[in-house]
Specification:
The protein is an alpha/beta fold. Helix content is 29%, strand content 20%. The chain contains 16 helices and 29 strands. The strands form seven sheets. The protein has an eight-stranded parallel beta barrel with strand order 1-2-3-8-10-11-12-13, surrounded by seven helices. A five-stranded antiparallel beta sheet has the order 14-24-25-28-29, with no helix packed on it. A five-stranded parallel beta sheet has the order 16-15-20-21-22. The N and C termini lie far apart (59 Å).
Length: 666
């Protein structure tokens, strides 16, 4: 039965990709000309109220003056959850007037204007048709509720992400409301990370689909609430396999297709989604990461998808909850996140540098609350708050210079193509077999629970110099090896590395096929077949793989010389533009940051050095990386040798540092 399922998967995934490229519903891939200035954007929090058009204009001008390239408008609840706040209905003609104005002003200023595709997140609607809401197997109401939307205190319901018809009904309303705002420059339609209940998630017909794909009934495990038991890990794997297909074909593919149909483009955080993340990120026009609620290394998944699918832009929601967070419910919506208004740009630079070194090349600030210029009355509870007030840290020349720095790095990280010599098989099957994260790693317990999220996976440290890129079965299916190179999607590799406990039979067969073509394969350990239904041929395929001389269990299988060699290598990202390499090397301190970052942590950096060898253009060159405190480096590697690019920015100590130094803010 699994063999039949694998055959069906090829057809299904082909249909998914076709749905994003269908000439009747979608324009050509728009991602090649997006975010052309590389200037940071900011999420712009519009609190439910009457939006003053003069304030819209003044804030956009202020952002332009401070080197922002654009905004993403996010419509949320009234400030302090004040149910008496007067506001136009969401998507009404009155509401649309200020949105259209914002788009027109942004266009006149040469700025971009994206839209969160709904109010708050994920997508929800106070008038959602019956049956279109997300649900679990027990059809309880709680997973579908969303209270703090633009139309507060009216309660909204979250749409089902497993039903494309529900999405298209929702999209029809959104597109009517935004119709005029779509005109002018191309706007991004944005969906945030998956903040929907995933335990026992269900939709009508799921049971029948599961039965066809796996050959047994999933419902007894649902009814008895035993799906998540450790003893049923193989059943949970099969459940995730079916669920992943629903998420890809019923949500992310339609989301991308709809954006193109209306002349916009799709931008998505697929983080947290119960699906094949690498494939999901590759479906949208602009895949987006997040830090530091997600580890910076998570961004390598997003950047790998972009590399394989030929997407030039990788964005990141950046600086969210940098120092921790305070619940929206705290003090009736009056709780600020820690150190809000006194954020240290030095700390934030560590975060963005860690992102750059893991493949991000476009920063989206989180964020900018809608206020009159000079006012700080409105604030978003988890944001590092950009402010027009001189009393706050994220304002004035310090903010402008930091934005210029991020723009400069982003520009270098858009040159040419991502460089990578090593494909690494992504441990998706391990994650789906893994079940619950231990409490020790669930740092924000309300936000995640399962290993399927793959928040902490990392490419092999010993192979860092080859700039490893994640690959999966989907992309291996169309890969080929010839003349020393594996063409996989839009990327090229010299070898494949696998160190996983579980691997689908289909993926194992693809690796065998490629190895027979001559692909060097480092198979660190023999994988096992996941899922409840096993295939007798699995052992034979594995045995055939080991018979090949180019398949080894150690790194000797990889004969590619790394671009960069050295002990204790910092994180880096490389772009290759014709014969020139551009390498951003992050300050080694970026490898030590974790959520939440300690206030003023960056100032503990005393500087450091690393000795490396750069192998390029047929020669090897010894190079010393000298990191001044809080500094990251940019190397330009050409035929004549290695030179360093002056990035021209060192953060300064800001308001709050003296208090911290004295212990008051520890």
């Amino acid at each position: 039965m699994r063999k039949l399922f694998l055959a069906l998967s090829v057809v299904a995934m082909s249909a998914i990709f076709a749905s994003c490229c269908n000439s009747e519903t979608a324009a050509a891939d728009p991602s090649s000309d997006l975010y052309p200035t590389c200037k940071p954007y900011t999420r712009w929090w519009w609190f439910s109220s009457d939006i003053d058009t003069n304030d819209v204009r003044n804030q956009l001008i202020w952002l332009k003056e401070h080197e922002f390239g654009g905004v993403e408008i996010a419509w949320i609840y009234p400030m302090f959850l004040d149910s008496n706040t007067v506001h136009p209905d969401f998507l009404s003609p009155e509401w649309a007037k200020s949105v259209i104005l914002a788009k027109r002003v942004a266009d006149s200023l040469g700025m971009g204007c994206d839209f969160t595709y709904g109010t708050l997140w994920p997508f929800s609607d106070v008038d959602l048709p019956a049956g279109d809401q997300t649900r679990d197997y027990f059809d309880t109401v709680e997973p579908a509720r969303r209270g703090y939307t633009w139309d507060f205190p009216r309660e909204a319901r979250i749409i089902s992400h497993l039903d494309s018809n529900a999405f298209y009904r929702y999209a029809e309303k959104m597109n009517r409301g935004l119709a005029e705002a779509y005109k002018g420059s191309k706007s991004g339609l944005f969906v945030d990370s998956w903040e929907v209940e995933t335990q026992y998630v269900w939709t009508p017909g799921f049971g029948q689909t599961f039965q066809k794909e796996h050959g047994y009934d999933i419902e007894p495990y649902m009814k008895n609430r035993t799906l998540l038991d450790t003893a049923n890990a193989e059943v949970f794997y099969d459940y995730m396999h079916t669920l992943s297909g629903y998420v890809l074909r019923e949500f992310y593919a339609p989301f991308a297709a709809n954006a193109r149909k209306v002349g916009a483009f799709s931008r998505a955080q697929c983080g947290g989604a119960p699906t094949d993340l690498l494939t999901a990120f590759s479906l949208v026009d602009v895949p987006e990461s997040e830090a530091i609620l997600y580890e910076p290394s998570f961004s390598r998944i997003v950047a790998s998808a972009a590399t394989l699918a030929g997407k030039p832009v990788v964005t990141s929601e950046t600086f969210t909850c940098a120092y921790g967070w305070t619940s929206l419910r705290y003090q009736n919506g009056r709780g600020h996140s820690p150190h809000q208004g006194k954020e240290q740009i030095a700390d934030l630079k560590l975060i963005c540098d860690a992102l750059f070194a893991n493949g991000t090349n476009q920063i989206i600030w989180h964020g900018f609350p809608f206020n009159k210029v000079g006012d700080t009355s409105n604030f978003f509870y988890t944001t590092c708050q950009i402010s027009t007030s001189p009393l706050n840290n994220l304002t004035g020349d310090n903010l402008t210079n930091f934005n210029r720095y991020m723009t400069t790095v982003s520009q270098y990280m858009r040159k040419g193509q991502n460089y990578s010599d090593l494909a690494v098989y992504m441990p998706l099957e391990d994650a789906w077999m893994g079940g619950f994260y231990p409490d020790s790693v669930r740092k924000v317990k309300a936000f995640f629970w399962g290993e399927y999220e793959m928040r902490f996976i990392k490419t092999p440290e010993a192979q860092k110099g080859l700039q490893p890129t994640w690959v999966n079965e989907h992309f291996l299916k169309t890969a080929s090896f010839a003349n020393g190179t594996m063409q996989c999607g839009k990327a090229q590799f010299k070898a494949l590395y696998s160190d996983v406990e579980y691997m689908e039979l289909g993926a194992l067969k693809e690796i065998l096929r490629l190895a027979k073509q001559g692909l060097p394969v480092c198979l660190v350990r023999d994988p096992k077949e996941p899922g409840k239904v096993k295939h007798p041929e699995y052992a034979a395929v594995l045995a055939d793989l080991h018979k090949l001389v180019n398949v080894k269990t150690d790194a000797s299988a990889i004969d590619a010389k790394p671009l960069i060699e050295g002990a204790d290598l910092p994180d880096f990202w490389c772009r290759k533009d014709d014969d020139t390499y551009y390498v951003f090397v992050a300050n080694p301190m970026t490898q030590t940051i974790e959520y939440p970052i300690q206030y003023c942590y960056a100032f503990s950096d005393k500087g450091s050095k690393r000795q490396i060898t750069v192998n390029h253009h047929g020669k090897s060159e010894s190079v010393t990386l000298t990191f001044k405190p809080m500094e990251s480096l940019m190397m330009k590697i050409g035929k004549k040798g290695v030179e360093f690019v002056d990035l021209g920015f060192t953060p300064v100590k800001m308001n709050g540092f003296a208090e911290w130094q004295g212990g008051a803010s520890r």
